[in-house]
Fold each of these.
Amino acid sequence: MKPSRKKTQLARLDQRYVWHPFTQMQDWLRTNPIVITSGEGAVLRDDCGNEYLDGNSSIWTNLHGHNHSKINAAISKQLKKIAHSSALGFANEPASLLAEKLVELANPKSIVLENKRHSRLGKVFYSDDGSTALEVALKLCHEFTRRTGKSKKPRFLSLDGAYHGDTVGAVSLGHIDLFHKAYSGLLFKTDKVMSPYCYRCPFNRARPERADAREYRKCNWECVGKVEQAFDRAKKRKQPFAAFVYEPLMQGAAGMIPQPQGWLKKVCGLARAHGAQLIADEVMTGFGRCSSSGDRNQKPVIRNQRSIGIPQTQNPRPKTPSARRHPPSPIFASHTEDVQPDYLCLAKGLTGGYLPMAATLTTQAVFDSFLGEYDEFKTFFHGHSYTGNQLGASAGLANLTLLESLTSIKGRQRIETALINALPALWDQPNVGDIRRVGLVVGIELVKNWQTRQPFDLREQAGVRVCQAMAKRGVLTRPIGNVIVLMPPYCTAVEQVKQMIGALYDSIAEVLGGGE
Ligand SMILES: *Cc1c(COP(=O)(O)O)cnc(C)c1O
């Protein structure tokens, strides 16, 4: 059932007035934009009545599906009381309750804290989006470092390819030249260090195989060595880093770059040993997105399989582990490697993809460094008009209740198993170079030649064209350069996961023709 679309009045209005983010508008004006008018579960509907699967959870925000009765009800209930009141001077009900819940989730029993008072993430600062969550962490860390006398001019270390948002501070932490170069005159200087991109790592001596590059890499953890060198150099310069800023397990906007198991624990250990704080950007990875279900060793069933049909009989299907016996791995990705950051930045999934809201969690030690007599002016001078928004906080509360429900836990396990079973079919396509999955996030890197890993020139827009072909097949997602992202909402059915991967398979074949 292919979508059929004529250009509607709404599409015309959009093209006349709306300027879209990260979009070459000259290209946009040549298209017939899809106007989304409703949604339910993993399905989005346009104003021509076509249905699409939401293949990237509406840019990584949606958790439990659209139009969810429980979140809808929570917002409606709150709406009957009040939509918003200011956090400047007043407390409110849902923001207080949500903060308590976030603190509970951010300090799971499984995490052994070195120093309870100092490592517990006990304080919640609200803001509006991922970028501001990072700005807040940056400012807090900057001040904390100066006030504790650790450094007069705090410096920050982040990863190559990092993306932490689009406000000026967040952009300063980022290292994607394409996005960031234009603003270099506005930014402050930060340092970058090699990120563990196994598929394109110069230290990886393995020849390309039809498998996730992390699995067959041959190296000596040179990427960790690079981080160590960065800290050593800073120490010699007598400018130690105030903080190491990272996305745990998977760097999202960098191109879905997954970290080999153990990397995070190693580099965060190095950072700690050098006295640096840890700023975890879990805007994408948080809320279970990068968590694996019970059995972390689940393996793909098949490789080099010849058809997209998902074999059910000839291959043993990995069993879905019982949610009770195997509680899912932690809600936050840092905890998967037993890392507890000093700042936990949350946004996208915080309200289940309903409303813009963010939170930066931090420790009592950081909080204390801002305490003082009024005339010491140690106040944290930062805030937004909609901080602690009541509708957003009620959506957040309902969202977290759902996240912990057995239905959601089982749903996530089902999706993960479906991905494990269905993704290997894509190896059949010679233009697939790497398939990398962490939890429920998948990046598929398209290449000109898988045997040499030769990339497509960005100008060829391979990723864009494949995603356009997927839209024609009723699946919506957005590429990062030549990397196709699949990130299904947690309510996605196994059949819908197969549909997403089937559409991707057919689109690659159509657009790239299965060869050079
Ligand atoms: C999306 C994202 C941000 C920015 O969040 P916005 O809400 O778009 O400002 C920051 N960091 C990461 C890892 C993200 O994925």
Amino acid sequence: MASSATVIHPPTRLLLGPGPSPIHPRIYAALGQPIVGHLDPYLFEIFSDIRRLLQSCWGTQNEFTFVIPGTGTAGMETAVVNFVAPGARFAVFVNGIFGERLCEIGRRRGARLLRVAKPWGQVFSDEEAAGFIQRERPDVVAFVNAETSTGAWQDGRAIARAASEIGALTIADCVTSLGGMPINLDAMGVDIAYSGTQKALGAPPGLAPITCSPRAVEWLRAHESAVPYYFDLKLLADYYGPARRYHHTPPVPMFYALREALAIIEEEGLENRFARHKANHEACVAGLEKLGLSLLVDKPHRLWTVATPRVPAGIDDALARRSMSEHHGIEIAGGLGSLAGQIFRLGNMGYGSSAENVKLVLGALAEALREQGYTA
Ligand SMILES: *Cc1c(COP(=O)(O)O)cnc(C)c1O
């Protein structure tokens, strides 16, 4: 019993849902290393390694690249509150739950919200994206590069191009793409991007990488706007940047863990890592189709990191997931919001992305479906 034990023994689950993803043993080891103080030069070496490795995962030269304590949502909130002033015209492309969350943060910030929506699982075409931006002339535009709630990949090039043509800044949510799929942020023309550590980066939850283009940094320096203290990018940059001015005490073991996760990525090589995610994604999709399941997202727009097969008619998805958990210790997820009961969500991220795990999850899912009388 957890309440009376002196040493905890958490269950070992095979996390094959849309995050958190499995942790490499080297990362668990990194979490147990001695902590140092918040101004120790060693910690700043860790920050500097993390900056360089994140720049390469993101495909950016942005000097203003660091990591803030807090989960992916803290990254989202930081991006919005620093660049969307109260009353600013804030356009959000919504095709899933994380686009809705961006809207909600914008609303609470007092932005003039310009919401454009697609049915969940679909993406915006270049023409739709550019047309909306030219018509509405927002100050800031946000979109979700990898919509984890649906499994859809949104190309950001047309969005960022149209935004920059009218002098607007572009924010991209890269929580489920960073470390698992090519992003090429600079080529895309995105100004601000954030992520989380527990998805394709393969580290524990708790940190939010963020990056800002020189144009975004210039905007930040030129605008005085009251920002919640903890998420104030200028104060954060004073600590994580060269000034090393105390702002908060960072969760040091988490930074060790992220440093180790990024070192593992560098050792594998980004191209190899992306190829591994792609191959395992394709094997998973082939297996799902063999089982007779159709996918929510059209082929060209699918994330490699999250597959979203439809739940077959007559199947109770919660019951199927419980069976997979009880019989195989495998965790996958169901749909959120309007997709609840409609889809399964299978993760293929970081250390968890392997041919063996694809086989395990497909086998467990097939068995769970058969238990409910399903025949392909
Ligand atoms: C998981 C996720 C978030 C939120 O991250 P948390 O770590 O749960 O706060 C935001 N956006 C996307 C696309 C995500 O997948």
Amino acid sequence: MRPETMCIQAGYEPKNGSPRALPIYQSTTFTFDSTEHVGALFDLTAGDAFYTRLGNPTTDCVEKKIAALEGGVGALCTSSGQAASMLAVMNIAEAGDHIIAASAIYGGTFNLLGVTLKKFGVDVTFVDGDAPLEQLQKEIRPNTKAVFGETIANPALHVLDIEKFAALAHNNGIPLIVDNTFATPILCRPFAFGADIIVHSTTKYMDGHAVQMGGVIVDSGKFDWGASGKFPGLTEPDESYHGLRYTESFGAAAYITKARVQLMRDMGTCQTPMGAFLLDLGLQTLPLRIRQHSSNALKVAQFLEQHPDVEF
Ligand SMILES: *Cc1c(COP(=O)(O)O)cnc(C)c1O
């Protein structure tokens, strides 16, 4: 499937006689015939939805669609883009840790990392995205857990050298998190350039109609969480899940599973079924809208290029 097809078909696969449109499962809870089944759900050995904070069939389809579009192993929808960035970082960094972020990022993310997560004990260094790799390397500390940047920064429009930032991260055994809100997977798929985790504010182009707040985290499934010994949260037993180890139990989907069953469970910043439905509706026309946005932007750029008051 090409991206245009995925935007329509991926995620929801109706069986014979099922509704053609993605149904809205407007239900907080789900029913089961046996306590054994519910026990298996709590133990994460059965995959059905049982409580909408942790998963919902409507939201699940949209997560699968976005994971397919980005080429990831799994995705987690959140209540907003801010929630996606917060969970993406907190899933691997805790008090005493440090992260590196490009300075040209969305103002809300700048505050989240520079003010609020700092209060939670996660330190951040903002770096010039154009700095050479050797200079960026000097900012790495033994407790640095992630590198963060935006494909096309909002609002500065600085374009991230994803390969350079991926090299910085991977040379130090840590992942690169990329906010791909502005490019969308129609214009850029950051996993192809070495990103490990992608976040989006789906509030922007993905929704496209200014009707629904939302965010999403996508996991490439390619990062080796065990190699550096820096991510005990993923490789060591989780006491809140009676000793489960995410890398052992979920393999390539360890990161996105932890984000869902541990952080979403505890923080509760979930997307709603109705919100997921509206997002899915928006995604269906994403390629058409992005094509038009790009052609509009080119016209503006060509106008400015000719304008006597504009210098390059
Ligand atoms: C809007 C935006 C966010 C925050 O998303 P919300 O859905 O408003 O919480 C994060 N990153 C980028 C690039 C954005 O444009």
Amino acid sequence: MKKQYIYTPGPTPVPHEVAAAQTSMVHHRTDEFGECLARVLEGLKFVMQTGNEVMLLTASGTGAMEAAVANCFSPGDTVIVFSGGKFGERLVEISSRFGLDAVVVEYAWGDCADPAELEKALEGNPDARGVFLTQSETSTGVVNDVEAFGRIVRGTDALFLLDAISGLGAVDLKTDEWGVDLCIGGSQKGLMTPPGLAFVAVSDDAWKASAGATLPRYYFDLQAARKAQSGSPPQTPYTPAITLVQALDVALRMLREEGLEAVFARHELFARATQAAVGAMGLRFVASDLSRAFVCTSVWAPEGLKSGDLVKLLRNEYGVSIAGGQGKLKGKIFRLGHVGYFDMFDVIAQVAAVEAGLKRLGYGVAIGCGVAAALEVLAG
Ligand SMILES: *Cc1c(COP(=O)(O)O)cnc(C)c1O
């Protein structure tokens, strides 16, 4: 027997009661499902801290990124895109695939995006129709200062598009207060639900832009989603992932019961505990400012070790899934997740697995030093 532990920063562990909610199949045109969808849409507004309508799509998170771009922009539109990791690169790729004129502002992987760079980019591109940013760059673990970016975008005609897929339900996100026009989320990170649902909260300005935007869209047509969702009870234009909506209903209720402040505090505590463990093991961090790292802890593999070998050993020998590096960090780093349904013993187990794995691979860390440091934080 091998027990499976999923400690990756997406997909993340799914609570029992969330998984169990997926057992009964109802038709998506029934009132019963419509009422469930209505609760989910309200719950999404709650976690996104928005009064804007949230469109629900059956897709992984990337589908909502594509939907946001395809609905609100036209070929040739100038957009300023921040890229400091794998997911920032994805925003750049989607922009160029859809024929937007992307002004790419690169920042170092492991750093935060600098709001001053946005001011500079806007000076050079006063006609920019959009500013694209990743809230939590899951490939490095760094969380950007969305509020500071929002303050700058507010003074322009540009739409503020935010990939909040791994930050949602983990770190603070005041969609309306921070002026986010297109706030993008997904089900399988902080929202503790299996992958397959994606969301976009759409501001009035973004709806106005969508009316005149000429990029083609069909499955991801947000106007069609809005029309179907405006019914009473709400519906979706096409068959949604019915059982995932049922699961998300339970997960959102759990987050509501815990309260957002407590949810954010829990994520912060687990980040600090994991960081303490990694520091005690004498390993180096990818994030240059640990106070900005919340959803996962990215760690440089020790000299001479391919991080994929550690990831493989943990998975094969112990049933423990941690994440390797993505893009240009592939093979070089490993990432310890602590976003979503984690408790203090998951944090400890993950650290213990890394210690055991490094020992097995001949990288002698003093056994127990990481565990002790994490426990010191957690039990404090
Ligand atoms: C997980 C994630 C995505 C979306 O990935 P999917 O595999 O399409 O769900 C996008 N951006 C960030 C920051 C993510 O963490």
